[in-house]
Amino acid sequence: MPRHRVVIVGAGFAGLKLANDLKGGSVDITIIDRRNHHLFQPLLYQVATTVLATSEIAWPIRSLYRNRPEVTTLLGEVVGVDLSEHTVSLRDGQGISYDTLVLATGARHAYFGHDEWEKVAPGLKTLEDATTIRRRVLLAFEKAEMEPDPERRKALLTFMVVGGGATGVELAGMIAELAHRALYREFRHIDTRTAKILLVEAGPRILPVFTPELSEYGRQALEKLGVDVRTGKSVTNCSAEGVKIGDEFIASQTLIWAAGVRASKAAVWLGVEADRAGRVVVRSDLTVPEMPDVFVIGDTASVVSENGRPVPGIAPAAKQQGAYVAKVIARRLAGAEPPRPFVYHHQGNLATIGRRAAVVEFGRLKLKGSIAWWIWGLAHIFFLIGTRSRIAVAASWLWVFLRGQHSARLITQRETIQDMDS
Amino acid sequence: MPRHRVVIVGAGFAGLKLANDLKGGSVDITIIDRRNHHLFQPLLYQVATTVLATSEIAWPIRSLYRNRPEVTTLLGEVVGVDLSEHTVSLRDGQGISYDTLVLATGARHAYFGHDEWEKVAPGLKTLEDATTIRRRVLLAFEKAEMEPDPERRKALLTFMVVGGGATGVELAGMIAELAHRALYREFRHIDTRTAKILLVEAGPRILPVFTPELSEYGRQALEKLGVDVRTGKSVTNCSAEGVKIGDEFIASQTLIWAAGVRASKAAVWLGVEADRAGRVVVRSDLTVPEMPDVFVIGDTASVVSENGRPVPGIAPAAKQQGAYVAKVIARRLAGAEPPRPFVYHHQGNLATIGRRAAVVEFGRLKLKGSIAWWIWGLAHIFFLIGTRSRIAVAASWLWVFLRGQHSARLITQRETIQDMDS
């Protein structure tokens, strides 16, 4: 009899964990992704802030499965799902047949109905997002060095990060390090230490998933780095000239969006119910209601854990879902009982502030400062793929830590095309 | 009295050598470049062929002079020179004043009057050129994996390099390694080892600057790697479908141009005589005739050495010219005799074929094979800037050498915009 065909769309943390856990089973796996690489998103902000090179946190998907002949990798863009034909439709017109379909297509950033803001305030989800932000941040300093007009120079040296979650905090902290530590001796007409970095959060406090104590510490650590933290303030307009926070206009040439996400089009492909963030509301076994052969996992799925709280859109949650679906598929093929409903085990929260401080929360264990930073750093190096990347990232961090020199400061691609791509 | 102002346009090998050798003198230096980075061009082909990451062979110019307060770096595009006003005009309208001007603006590749070929046959001069070629080569394999039609698959797996100089040979050799060694276990529908790599050279032999023996060895080494070498054949047409060599049409989706260069617009800016390649014909002290304060050096200068042979457009020649001009400027400021006319000292020729063989020629010393490869490798690591890059490049080579794995295989930017940029 023919082997069972599992098609996985999306090679993020959820999709890869599923493919990895299906190893040794008697299933043929096809992984489809728009990109040729898996991206280690938790460190993407370090590419955007010139600490890491793109190749240090991304790996060609097919190279990860070179020794798994039953795994086929396709570089293609999914545009729909034909449920009656059991096929996934690609942009180039091809259809890929499946017995079991798993959609793990992630999320993009959301602008709360102001998509026109994206051009001036790029978000951070892909390598191109990161190199776009990197280019804009570096170009702002370069233009300021050439700018005779003090007002315009001030706007060029004002960096605005919108969103006080981990990503926003990490971006603001590293931009502050860049301006106040890494760059200041390299310019002759400006003092990069005069740069203003603002972090705007609509909620009452930054790092809301942490305890009030740790988020207060995070705020103080950011302020020590020279970041101006504004909580309880929401952005009412973004333009090429700057940002409107409430009624106050702040001139800034460099805006970065780290607030809110919107799920992929998985719900549209399936024609099923989605929540406000566009995520597919799945059953407790992560299948789509009335579609036992279709799973949706990761940031594009809306999963409610037992305590009634939504499962967060973070890497560990995505991996747990991938592992769970691998178990479901294995049991089905073995004709065994389905496993108990999916339960999310929260391992903790981590966030860094600059190159020395971090906040870490593992259940009752709460840590801050440099010890937390080391735990954070080791944890992330551990989760990277391959010795080579681990060595490379460790070396880059060592350089930043000891020499204060950021090793990934190339400006590539022209700004004129940044809104098309970079 | 005010300090003497030297403006250097172009931070390639010639410009940087000049700025470095002027250290300690009483001159203010302004370096202007369109890019924020100095590029180690001799290894650029390894970025194009997925061996090295962009950040491993490029360095932010201003970071190289962080400890030289008299050196100002400007990211700007020169559009002209006002000789009467002694100013360099930038695209943004600013004028930069100079007492001594040095134009070291390099060269681009040339298409012998067929500029329309550039879109289908990109050359290799900038990081964007390299990532464009890398993306096209990798996408060709990805598309072939998806292509049901055998004819089109064959065209996708045919790679054509035009130009049998060192760059063309090095590109063809590494693409062969990629297809026959690095990738073949990662695809399921195609055998990448069936890929055809062609190297076309109009002249009678490849590597013409080497002795006939060494260029014959190079040809054999390439053929051992599976490269189809065609000498004495010139390209009569390039299109999206393929290449016409003489009357023979060869279907190929991936063309790379490594034949011929055209100098920058320096001659136009100065309104002076240029040779066929657009280079400024300079005097024996590397100044422009009738312009004692204006030097032109590097690939954009036409310099004839004593034996009447033109100085080649290679890094060592550019560095020697930069060093010479530094001496001229220092002597002038000291009121001393001008140095003797510039003499080019040819140190030798190097070229690699794949990841194990190379040809090396130092005067009477001629080497080939793996010993030559090690000499080539050590020489290049030595010439890189900074410990960090040396370690990184050595590590990347080690991985290729021992594991056969290429560590810079990311496809970024979309093909749709490649002709605008990448």
SSE blueprint:
The structure is a homodimer of 422-residue chains.
Chain A (H helix, E strand, L loop, with lengths): L3 E6 L3 H9 L5 E7 L3 E3 L4 H5 L9 E3 H4 L6 E5 L2 E5 L4 E4 L4 E3 L2 E4 L3 E3 L17 H20 L3 H7 L1 E5 L3 H17 L13 E6 L10 H13 L2 E5 L3 E4 L3 E4 L2 E4 L2 E4 L3 E3 L2 H5 L9 E2 L5 E2 L2 E6 L4 E2 L12 H19 L15 E5 L3 E6 L2 E5 H14 L3 H17 L19
Parallel strand pairs in A: 1-2, 1-9, 2-5, 9-21, 11-12, 11-17, 12-13, 19-22
Antiparallel strand pairs in A: 3-4, 6-7, 7-8, 10-18, 14-15, 15-16, 20-21, 23-24, 24-25
Catalytic activity (chains A, B): a quinone + NADH + H(+) = a quinol + NAD(+)
Organism (chains A, B): Ciceribacter sichuanensis
InterPro entries (chains A, B): FAD/NAD-bd_sf (IPR036188), FAD/NAD-binding_dom (IPR023753), NDH-2 (IPR045024), NDH2-like_C (IPR054585)
Describe the structure.
Chains A, B: InterPro entries: FAD/NAD-bd_sf (IPR036188), FAD/NAD-binding_dom (IPR023753), NDH-2 (IPR045024), NDH2-like_C (IPR054585). Chains A, B: It is an enzyme of class 1 (oxidoreductase). Chains A, B: Belongs to the NADH dehydrogenase family. Chains A, B: Its EC number is 1.6.5.9. Chains A, B: It catalyses: a quinone + NADH + H(+) = a quinol + NAD(+). The structure is a homodimer of 422-residue chains. Chain A is α/β, with parallel strands linked by helices and 422 residues long. The first copy, chain A, folds into 2 domains: 139 residues, 3-Layer(bba) Sandwich (FAD/NAD(P)-binding domain), CATH 3.50.50.60; 207 residues, FAD/NAD(P)-binding domain (3-Layer(bba) Sandwich), CATH 3.50.50.100. Chain A is 31% helix and 25% strand. Chain A contains 11 helices and 25 strands. In chain A, strands 5-2-1-9-21-20 form a 6-stranded mixed beta sheet, covered by helices on one side. A 4-stranded parallel beta sheet of chain A has the order 13-12-11-17. In chain A, strand 15 and strand 16 form a beta hairpin. In chain A, helix 1 runs parallel beside helix 9 and helix 4 packs antiparallel against helix 5. The radius of gyration of chain A is 22 Å and the shape is elongated. The termini of chain A are far apart. The C terminus of chain A is likely disordered.
